[in-house]
């Protein structure tokens, strides 16, 4: 009897809706969410009955607004007037007398976190995990959301699933099982950024272990690099079990990025590249920047111009994997910068990079490809965000990079763009010895050259076993695992930022 009465009540409430209609927000809006603050305008959308009017109201102590839109093809969408950072607000939508209220909504900066397993790597897996989890709830203004792992062969309008709905941080939310929720790099980036900005931060995680860049790219982006839709690679699902997963191009762009285009975001951070060390590696200096360009264009368009068309994009330069092999990691590190060695540069504007080559972790329980030092990674990313995304002056975020290389008297003097702290090494620099006076694209004869002398902004290496005229190229830290923990030979003067690897050719490329 009880159940029967209940059933009748439901019929009356939803009586006006025809079969298949539903009135709700899209999957990535919910209580506890952070919407993008002013000057950008937050986009909010959901589903309704075609033709019906939807009233949207935002109510809070700092400001109020009411808007009305009609439902087109089952979807309503509104662009809110700009709202300053803060909250909480209640966001209410009403259609035909049915009301949905989202409480505890904040306005702040929304950052998207993408990539593969080192982004998926959870806060529960880092060094000091228990301390990190224990203090998490002290940051209730940093909120998290995570898309579920889904693939699709067509571009989806909404996420097919949600792993973590918008939540305040708690040890339970952040401390999911390994590689599930929540991303350590994403969380720590948000927490450190909050410390610097002191207003709410929304973190949207959408990443998947073992994935190549092609899976996260649209066809448009792939075509720009001469790649076809059919490209498929396979990888272990994470480096700890044996599930082999096939990755077709675009499947994660379709299911886990395309649906998010309609929300307004401040920027994105990214930790990926390991899965391309052996797959389309030579294309990565095209595919990675092309993906960034394409995401920027698509998020700008999807948010009707609210997300900046050059939104800041930060990424982690690959850390270490194996000591003895060359697995293509140096090449990917170089390609991550579009072969410039540093970012931002002409090709990759408004980007920032956390160098992580000096954070090896041979004893990581999840394999050495997953170093546990995510605090350092997040710290370096936040320096880049402060300088590039927030244009804070006087924040150094790039390690030393050469701006002059002179060959003379059996020595090479490498002058850096900043003051350095150096430790002499016998083999971190290498020269390519070749009789051909042209750019050697694949030099087979690399000779280590010892660092002999250092100054406040230069180092001097001595050339042995190669006639001066035959020195065709110079490279630094060009191996998978070039140094011990925080002990690379060259850092910024404060010892914080390691010099990234480089390869410089003496002769110009042949055209
Ligand atoms: C939001 O709604 C809740 C529950 O209805 C109410 O208690 C609260 O006062 C509202 N907050 C604002 C800012 O309007
Ligand atoms: C772990 O915590 C200790 C003690 O607070 C601290 O000294 C150390 O730097 C922390 N390690 C990391 C990686 O955060
Ligand atoms: C979201 O943006 C994409 C890309 O511009 C567009 O194709 C799609 O129709 C938009 N979805 C909604 C619900 O507005
Ligand atoms: C190179 O060596 C010659 C002869 O020893 C010396 O005169 C010259 O100053 C040296 N050049 C530099 C740049 O050290």
Automatic annotation (TrEMBL):
<dbReference type="Pfam" id="PF03629">
    <property type="entry name" value="SASA"/>
</dbReference>
<dbReference type="InterPro" id="IPR039329">
    <property type="entry name" value="SIAE"/>
</dbReference>
<feature type="signal peptide">
    <location>
        <begin position="1"/>
        <end position="20"/>
    </location>
</feature>
<keyword id="KW-0732">Signal</keyword>
<dbReference type="GO" id="GO:0001681">
    <property type="term" value="F:sialate O-acetylesterase activity"/>
</dbReference>
<feature type="domain" description="Sialate O-acetylesterase">
    <location>
        <begin position="109"/>
        <end position="321"/>
    </location>
</feature>
<dbReference type="InterPro" id="IPR036514">
    <property type="entry name" value="SGNH_hydro_sf"/>
</dbReference>
<dbReference type="InterPro" id="IPR005181">
    <property type="entry name" value="SASA"/>
</dbReference>
<protein>
    <recommendedName>
        <fullName>Sialate O-acetylesterase domain-containing protein</fullName>
    </recommendedName>
</protein>
<dbReference type="GO" id="GO:0005975">
    <property type="term" value="P:carbohydrate metabolic process"/>
</dbReference>
<keyword id="KW-0378">Hydrolase</keyword>
